[in-house]
Amino acid sequence: MQVPQPKPIDSDRDWFARAAEHGNPYAQFNLGMLYRNGEGVEQDDAEAVRWLMCAACQRLAFAQNQLGSMYYLGRGVGQSDMLAVYWFRLAAEQGDPSAQQNLGDMFRLGRGVPRDPSEAVAWYFKAAEQDTASAQRMLGACYLNGDGVAPDHALALAWLRKAARLGDADAEVSLGLMHRRGQGVAPSEAQAVHWFRRAAGKGNAAGQRLLGLACLEAGDVKGACLWLKRAAGQGEAEAQFRLALLLAGGPGAPTSDALDEAGALNWYTRAAEQGHVLAQYNLGVLYARRHGAGQAPDFRRAAYWYRHAAEQGMAKAQFALAVAHAKGQGVPRDEVQAARWYRRAAEQGDASAQNNLGVMYANGQGLRQNDAEAVRWYRKAAEQGHTLAQYNLGGMYNSGRGVERDSVRSYMWMLLAADAGDPAASANKAVLADCLSPGQLDSARDMSRRWRDARGAVTGERRAA
Questions:
Q1: CA-CA distance, 338 to 464, in Å (whole number)?
Q2: Could you give the CA distance from residue 392 to residue 351 in angstroms, rounded to a whole number?
């Protein structure tokens, strides 16, 4: 007896291919998506574009939107914002909500079209009315930030709540932040945590980070570590930085015996590699100050990370890199480079860098000797309450270098530095006082008192190379 053999079942690709070859736009679209996603066929962006183009030219809105996305991303075709806008618009005008949101994004970002926030809002509104959660969230963000519309916290809340009801986790995060800040509602940390928790439960990294930080604020270190680790594990740089800070003994950290320097190093590194500037700086500090068993400072790696943060414009890192060059720690000793990085930090107002740049000018290290410039930079730092700069400025007034000699002003700056705890100023104050009359001493004390009163409580700083 013959048993009939079952006929082989054609693959999805075969079904769609036959219909696509006969001009069916839906089959062309589906075949294009199979190639785009590599489902049942070898992934091939060029072939995906070919079939999406066939369907798009037959006015299939889904295909037009996907083709716009391929042009936007440069997949299978040369990247072109203008062609992305062209196809998004064709689909959007047919009512496709995803294309409407995409077109809104292009107007908001000014890609392929002149930036026009109000036009972006118009397209977001069309998509939002079709219950597209992400468009509702974007519309809420526009009302929150006044981008393309007048700021309106009530409407921002309304649209974000619509998106949240549809399960949009990013909208839940935004709602949590609005409740925390009291935007359109009474401030409520409990409500903020409620929304963060909902977003976190959906795996949203920002929600997990914010929930972790809320736990930390409430004294729940275990909960904080749990949620920060989940967010950090998803690659969120800020969560990685916050977790590293916690493990390294930052605010809210567990007792010293529960700290984890290796864990901190790992998470700082992962955040730093993503360009997180504070992580880069803190990683440099950690390498420069390592004190664990058998772990000597690694100044080469410290300088490497200081440089990354310094090149992003962080003044503290610029100062630290300058010190490394001045001392030859982890980098070749180079006074020219030290002066360069001191200047970049000093120009951002870093008082220690201003003082050290003054020292470089006073001694002619790394740049041309110039007492007047030394005085200028000492003064900038001294006015910020930097005690070493106050001492140095007092010395310049006493010797008449870069400024007219003035023993009274010299004593005034020495007095301020000494009162802030500078030991050298304390020792020299008595020597200077012997050279002044009682009237001059009273005048200097009065000047120092008025200086303090004018600035309030200024915390002295003595950070130097």
A1: 13
A2: 13
Q: How confident is the model at residue 3 (pLDDT cuts 50, 70, 90)?
A: very low
Q: Which domains does the chain have, with CATH numbers?
A: 12-130 (1.25.40.10)
Structural contact between residues 397 and 410, judged by C-beta atoms closer than 8 angstroms: yes
The pLDDT assigned to 301 comes to 96
- What value does the mean pLDDT take over residues 354-377? 97
Residue where the block lists tokens 């490497």: 304
Joined together, the tokens standing for residue 73 give: 């991303």
Task: Tell me the C-alpha distance between 7 and 14, whole Å.
Answer: 14
Rounded CA-CA distance 446/54 in Å is 86
Tokens 């004593």 sit at which residue? 411
pLDDT number for residue 256: 54
Can you give the pLDDT at residue 5? 46
So what's the pLDDT on residue 433? 85
- CB atoms inside a 10 Å sphere around CB 363: 12
pLDDT digits (tens, 9 = 90+) for 281-334: 999 999 998 755 467 899 999 999 999 999 999 999 999 999 999 999 999 999
Nearest to 451 by CA among 418, 413, 421: 413
Specify the length of the chain in residues.
465
CB atoms within 10 A of CB 313: 12
Residue whose C-alpha is closest to residue 180's, from 146, 209, 148, 214 = 214
Measured CA to CA, the distance from residue 113 to residue 84 in angstroms comes to 10
Unique residue bearing structure tokens 């003994």: 249
Q: Crossing angle of helices 387-399/423-433, nearest 10°? A: 30
